[in-house]
Design goal:
With 248 residues, the chain is an all-alpha fold. The protein has two domains: 1-55; 57-239, no CATH class. The protein is 77% helix and 0% strand. It has helices spanning 3-8, 11-23, 28-55, 58-76, 86-107, 115-146, 148-156, 161-185, 194-201, 206-235. Helix 4 packs antiparallel against helix 5 (86-107). It starts with a helix and ends in a 13-residue tail after the last helix.
């Protein structure tokens, strides 16, 4: 692909712009901003990754992963603004998921300790964890607000905060995990995942591409479960005070 063919792909940006304008959706500005930001960010990260790969420095790998976690934390925390200390809770969750997955990958020799593997896989893991955190926080805050009377009733009858919030917590964890589980049920039938498609387009052996894609799918399944459960159990205690009363 050269610059001319790449520029022609902007047709796929014009189509939603025209639809938004025609139907008065009001999404033209956001679409343009998203397009410009994606171009700038991807070009910058492309040069940065080239430098990191060439340097083969673990310090730069660490800095890249740290940058990903910081950016993901800042984005996800917005959905849990009503939860005290949500920033550090999201950060701890992302760090734990990253350490867990990389420890298994590197510890068992599944992937080599090289920049292109660590950074690429970390990006997918952290990005997915961020989306799961957003889904969980969005659902959890809505569940808590909708069932506030029920929670207070359980507390007034002598129930603990964990008992009072259990239904909302479990419901939110399940809701945030379902998209990941359901997408894996139809992978290969309804869709060819991005990593696999990219490798095939680049000329890789389709069977080898499938093997790497299975690795990512299994990673994302763990990411979904650990992110939702850990963030949930870190979040719910801060909804109550030391007298086991629900905070307003």
């Amino acid at each position: 692909m050269n610059l001319l063919t790449l520029s022609l792909t902007l047709i796929f940006v014009l189509i939603p712009l025209v639809l938004s304008k025609t139907l008065r959706l009001g999404l033209e500005k956001d679409t343009v901003i998203a397009t410009v930001r994606s171009i700038i960010q991807l070009l910058i990260i492309g040069y940065v990754l080239q430098f990191v790969f060439d340097s083969e420095s673990y310090l730069f790998i660490f800095l890249m992963v740290t940058l990903m976690i910081v950016a993901a934390t800042q984005n996800a925390r917005k959905k849990g603004a009503k939860i005290r200390g949500i920033t550090w809770k999201v950060a701890v969750t992302l760090v734990f998921v990253e350490v867990l997955t990389q420890s298994i990958l590197l510890g068992f020799g599944i992937t080599p300790p090289e920049a292109q593997y660590i950074i690429s896989i970390s990006g997918m893991v952290i990005g997915n964890s961020m989306v799961l955190a957003i889904l969980f926080l969005n659902r959890f805050t809505a569940e808590v607000e909708a069932n506030e009377d029920q929670t207070e009733l359980i507390l007034s009858l002598g129930g603990t905060p964990k008992q009072a919030i259990h239904t909302q917590l479990i419901s939110s964890i399940k809701a945030s995990m379902i998209p990941t589980i359901e997408s894996q049920k139809t992978v290969g039938l309804v869709q060819l995942p991005g990593m696999m498609s990219g490798q095939i387009i680049a000329g890789a052996d389709p069977v080898l591409a499938v093997q790497f894609q299975l690795l990512i799918l299994f990673l994302l399944l763990t990411t979904a479960a650990v992110t939702s459960v850990l963030l949930g159990f870190l979040s719910y205690p801060t909804l109550f005070n030391e007298r086991m009363q629900m905070l307003k």
